[in-house]
């Protein structure tokens, strides 16, 4: 006979360093919203993983009740649980997304002779097979007509070490690994996933049997997810500092993704564009044997988050540029300069951002949208072009495409761009 006074347990699987899921994991856990909503009658167990694959394995075994992961692992989760699990899983909410796909990138060693996707022909590429980073890498190379490359299946940390040791030529991974490695000077961005123009995102899955047995827990989790999302969008700097403290990631890297106009749009809504992305992902996962069959209609369940109403107030850069003295209105050009402390200064456009940096001396970080993809990137790691104005690009290949289309334009170094902006 069961003890009616025993606490009801909910086991939550999350990826602490996967920035796109912090509102269902790292930040949510730190804020304590779920525990507060559930009260003392419930016990929340948080289990941290580096990728979505082990979360899926534990859900199949009935050992994790709610998990957050990327779009590719989500599909594998739905497929495996439909095939093997003790009941099915449901996809019930989003955590964050980039509608162009910038959350997945390919990086190389800073001194690597590889400068274009074509240079990866016949090369060794580290990726976590079945992850969104893997999918983006293969899609990009296929689209570019590049063949002969070899994928080495490695978890992100192992792949990062392999890149630094030279045992692989490139690394195709998801957030926040590309930004972290580039910020640390350990990698150079070769390919911006936004060039695929296909949404990439992360979301929340729940074991259907658990949700049926404990609907109040799922309701509390989704309400807490919305609360954490609204907190992040209202307090992006404080949220980034909290995540940085919990994960030991540099705050400047976390803020690259989680700041206003950041690479991640934090929104819990299961949008049609996100479902479309899943439909496009299924053939690739089937081709590598990670999905045998999947009833997407049975897996996708927007009813719970729709009933709650979802999150509001996506963070945007606003205010007046302190150097140029003009309002920040165009998100395609708006940037931020983080000089010190815990506040940033808005920049109306790349030229104004350079003026701010040049006048400020040393800065913690500066963020600027890439001219071609709109991807928010580090100003000092961007490739700059002078074409009557200073234009930043996240990749060298993107900058050279602009040069090919504009013969009078020229590539300039970051230091020259700073000097020229004075």
From TrEMBL:
Organism this protein belongs to: Kibdelosporangium lantanae
Domain of life per record: Bacteria
InterPro entries in UniProt: SsuA/THI5
Matching Pfam families: NMT1
Name this protein carries in UniProt: ABC transporter substrate-binding protein
Domain SsuA/THI5-like: 102-239
SUPFAM superfamilies named among the record's database cross-references: NosL/MerB-like, Periplasmic binding protein-like II
